Each structure stands twice: as C-alpha cells, then as structure tokens.
Amino acid sequence: MLLKQYEQGRQFMAKLEYQSDLLEELNKICREENIKTGVINAIGAVSSLKLGFYDQETKEYIITTYAYDEPMEIVSCSGNISLKDGKPFSHVHIVAADRKGKCIGGHLVQGTAVFAGEVFVQELLGEDLVREEDEETKLTLWK
Hints:
8% helix; globular
C-alpha cells in the first residue's frame, strides 16, 4: 500500500464554459494554477458524454463506441490530480443520468461537452504524487 499525508493548499471554484471539453477544462485548471496534487469534484450537466473502460484482460482502455449524444445530468464526478510525464494530470470518473434517471458511468475521457459545469478543486501540499506504468496492470499508477 502507498500511503502519504498531505496538508490542504489552495481551493478553487470554477464555472466551466458552455460546450467546452470537461476533461480538458479540468486539466487546464491544474496546468494554469500549477496544481501537482489534489482532488476534483464537479456537478452540472453535459450535452454529450464520452467514457472509457479499462479492459483488465487486454490491458487496454476501451473508449465507448456508442455515443451518448443527449443531455445528461452529472450525478457524480470526482477524481484526483497527480503528475504524469512531469505534467499535472486529472484522473476522473463520472456518472451521468439521462432524462429518465438511467445512469451510466466510467472513466472520463476527452470528448464530453459541458452544458453547465461547476467545479471544486482542492490542492494538496506535500510530496508530489507521480504516475508511472505499473508492470502488473499496465496502468499509470502512483509510485
């Protein structure tokens, strides 16, 4: 187990731009504010949703082949910030509901369009969390 202790750093609230890419906006906040370690929470709605799923057998990310090109409410959107290849990296999972309340979720990937988004970012101070490829899973995990 990897266990590290952190102190609270800066806290940010952001309103995301209409039709912006949700993941890109989260990464942009981290880059512009030089947040190397932290946590992210978001609420709002999307006009389209794109998800990824990690296939544990093939050790590859599968990006959804079917489109969620419909309005959806963000039920839950949370993640963390660490360094990958020396740059701030947002690792985020999302659950969204359609107009009937049916939920779908997974790994947030580029291509999710924001309808309305409000984000909370908590910077954590301490030793940087760095991602490197894990030999067993082939995922980029904290080292």
